[in-house]
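Quality-control log, excerpt.
Job 1 of 2 completed; input and output follow.
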Amino acid sequence: MLDALNDFLSGKLLIVLIVGLGTYFTVRSRFVQFRYFGHMFSVFKDSLRGQAGQLSSFQALMLSLAGRVGAGNIAGVGIAVTLGGPGAVFWMWVTALVGMSSSFFECTLAQLYKRADGDGLYRGGPAYYIQHGLKLKTMAIVFSVLLLVTYGFAFNGLQSFTVTHSLQNAFGFDPQQTGIVLAVLLAIVFFGGIKRIASVSDLLVPVKTLAYIGVTLYVIFNQIEHVPAMLETIIKSAFGLDPAFGGLLGSAIVMGVKRGVFANEAGLGSAPNVAAVAAVRHPASQGVVQAFSVFLDTFVICTCTALLILLSGFYTPGFEGDGIVLTQNSLAAVVGDWGRIFVSVALSLFVFTCILYNYYLGENSLQFLTRNRTVLMVYRGLVLALIVWGSVQNLSTVFAFADITMTCLAFVNLIALALLVKAGMRVLRDYDEQRRAGIATPVFDASKFADLDLDPVAWPVPQAAGTVDANAPASPLPASH
């Protein structure tokens, strides 16, 4: 029953909603992801410069990539190619293109409605823009509970199972002992708070991403003469024009869209929780950065995995096996047996940072529900216990349940995005106007949005020249703001 319900919700209804609304946001924003594609790189460069005591836009990006760039980029792509053929890759690209606009809006709104947490940092996400943008407290609570259950608990147990059994297959490590070591390492990071989580992600995400891309590019460049033909096969297969994969047209679309959605998470409501923590000058700039992360996830990393599989010679139509095995054997077919070990090590790094990301999403949801310190300590202890428990369990039922709860929270988020699109468009127009006026780094003026329920600490109203408001909260931004 769980599988049937999950197949309908996440395999059909959610895909239609995400692709449909992503297309609507793309048209409504006048193709923001294309207009600002070149600008994404300059915003990404500017995001490296943080402010004292604040999390930078770059750190927020690394934290979101910690979750986006995970097992889905290795196993997910393998599953998509196995069940949908090469054409599934094309539909992953299409999903990412429209998903970039969804990510722009949800992360811009997360920045717009973020709240200062009293410790000099920020909290935000769908629960916050639902409460303060739509004034629907109950809906916000439902979203927070769903996010806490899905990411804070269920997915962390699943990630633990994945990495401990992968290491058992590669090195013969005992899963329970590996689970205990993993829990200890995670505890060191968890109890350091969001700053330590961001710092670790800052270090590990670029390392794991660049190392993985480097190895896959080595395989691709070794067979560069075959790449154009393979790209042609991907496109032809996407429309059922390649005889070898003609019978997989329907599967190519479904698997490509489904794996694309769950790889880049655009529109699901998870990334905005991380996007809100950064100190930025304008909410739209974080939307641009997060749209760029969708591009990195799908067009760069997922494409590298797909080409690795398709160029290796190991994959053949009708291949039977899981996605990790396919990726491991594809790399080993080119570079030797150390390729299997490399994939296991890469997966371990991917999973470690994914757990950090999942944990933070759960903590952010918990902070929305209660600020009780004891409850937070209990949550951390439960997550660590689940890491050890998950290392020795079969989590297929838990995973199916988590898929359903994640799909439900995606519905809540997508409904909120559709209802708040006017507010998102106002912020985008303000950003557009400043850019057209020649302002390289637009600055948000909260006085233009006085009708919205914004946090005066997060977005203080600029004072007129020569005047001082003694009651105004201190701005977290530099004086140039």
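Job 2 of 2 completed; input and output follow.
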Amino acid sequence: MDSTQLAIVALAVGAVIGGGLAALVLLALRTRDRARVEASLELPDGTRAVLQGMDEAAVVVDASLQVLAASAPAELFDMHEGSSLPGEELRAVVRAARRAARPESATLRLRRGVEQRLVTARASVITPRLTLIVIRDITEHERVEQMRRDFVSNTSHELKTPVGAITLLAEAIDSAADDPDQVRRFAARLSAEASRLGQLTSRIMNLSRLQSADDLTELRDVSVDEVVAAAIESQSIAADAAGIAIVRGGARGAYVRGDVQVLTEAIGNLVANAVAYSPPGAQVGVGVKADDRVVEIAVTDRGIGIPEGDQERVFERFYRADQARSRRTGGTGLGLSIVKHAVQRHGGEVELWSRPGRGSTFTVRLSVVEPPENTLVKGSRRTKPKKQKNKSKPKAARDVAPTKGDPS
């Protein structure tokens, strides 16, 4: 091998050795940099930007559980940069994730302001010293799920009662076929139970329709006077039978945008409740107050009233403040729930005032609209055609001047 060839071989060997050394040096530098990053408390680039773009509460904490970065929703749970991670249960989730070196999740309760919220917390280790925690508020989801389970359970229970009664009465009629008086008595009870079953089924369907995502389809400008008159008329027979007078007072000529059938049923349910829970000889008041923005329809009774502890729940499906009385009056426990959802579907609200022994007032508030062209509110230039007096006006309903102040 001549000198030229030896030189080429030497250069090749040197290049190989040099390249290997260079690769080893580069690997060592990268390992050192990675170890330095992992050992530091510096956040990876873009971490804060990612957190600020999140709709859920999320924070990054260090090994001592100090918050280094937080999303905006996390501040509602009192998690701010520089603060200590709140809640021992949440801290335990982080420690478990760090020990296992894998994401850990748990369902727990965290304080948000003055209330406790049900949340799911997931902790993920992003470096040996940094942990990401994502918190999802599931309070409303759990509430809706519980309502769904209660609805299915309560509906099944409520339907079993009249169905079972109808079955027994049918058997009783068959057994008493030779006794006309007994047959008539059982037949009357059978008819009552069938009516109750039909009413319950109808109300369940109405409530389901009101709770569906579909918009109301029969919308038009609705006369509040028409709604109130129809609601009172629907309860006039029950009121006469109980010796209760329904008194109508307040403003006239107000209009709202809505479904007349749905609104009439809602106000009719309030009147029916007032009649059912009033003593014989009492009065039920239906008053209307309106301004240029809102119309209020208040139904007042002087009945037994509702205890304060039950007032938050009376609008729930199948909930009855007085179970025994509701059974006697044939109540389904769905009337007030229908009222709430009907009013909400019209963009309004319903409010309850009640005191045990002094009675209750349910007030429905809806947005007013301009009257149609061929009608007129008192004081405007348009005139409203005169109507013939309604000679068939129910005896249980009378007009009186509106009263002011609370129903007490």
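Post-run check on job 2. The first strand starts at residue 57 and ends at 61.
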